[in-house]
From TrEMBL:
Domain of life: Bacteria
Transmembrane segments: 64-81, 88-105, 111-132
Organism: Planococcus plakortidis
InterPro entries listed in its UniProt record: VanZ-like
Keyword Transmembrane: yes
Residue stretches making up the VanZ-like domain: 5-129
Protein name: VanZ-like domain-containing protein
Pfam families: VanZ
UniProt keyword terms in alphabetical order: Membrane, Transmembrane, Transmembrane helix
Length: 142
C-alpha cells in the first residue's frame, strides 16, 4: 500500500521542516520561515534540561506539538506496517534523529523532547489498541 508511505514521508518532512526553523516562535506566531545551518553543533545540548519551562504557555504549545506530531506519525506508520514493534522502532528512531537534526539548524535538540515524542507514540499506540478492540467487539456482536 503506497498511499500510507507517501503520507508518512510527507508528515515526517513536515515535522523536520517545522522543527528546523530558526525561530519556533516566529514560525508559529508570525508565520516566518527561516533556516540557519550550523555545521558544528554542540551535541551536549541534547543532555540539557535546564530550559524546561512548564509554566510557559508557548513552551507547552511546542511540547503539545511534539506529542501530537509523533502520535500522528505512529498512527500512519501502524496503518502502513500493521505491526506495533516496527512502527514503534521507526517512530522512536525518527524522534532521536529529529532532535539531533535540529542541532544542525541552531535549534534546541533535547533528549527531553524525545521523551515527549515517546509519550505521543505511546498514547497513539493505546488509541489504536482501543479502536481495534472496539472493532473486534463490534464485529463479534454485530
Amino acid at each position: 500500500m503506497r498511499f500510507p508511505l507517501f503520507l508518512i514521508i510527507l508528515w515526517a518532512s513536515v515535522i523536520l521542516a517545522v522543527m528546523s526553523t530558526s525561530d519556533a516562535y516566529a514560525f508559529l506566531v508570525d508565520q516566518v520561515v527561516e533556516y540557519q545551518i550550523n555545521l558544528q553543533p554542540n551535541f551536549l545540548e541534547l543532555l540539557k534540561f535546564s530550559d524546561v519551562a512548564f509554566n510557559d504557555a508557548f513552551y507547552l504549545a511546542q511540547k503539545t506539538g511534539h506529542l501530537l506530531s509523533f502520535g500522528i506519525l505512529y498512527i500512519l506508520m501502524f496503518i502502513w506496517l500493521k505491526q506495533t514493534f516496527y512502527s514503534w522502532f521507526l517512530c522512536t528512531s525518527f524522534a532521536f534523529f529529529s532532535e539531533v537534526f535540529q542541532l544542525f539548524f541552531d535549534r534546541n535538540g533535547r533528549l527531553f523532547d524525545v521523551g515527549i515524542d515517546l509519550i505521543g507514540i505511546f498514547l497513539a499506540h493505546h488509541l489504536i489498541i482501543r479502536v481495534l478492540n472496539f472493532k473486534n467487539e463490534f464485529s463479534k456482536n454485530g
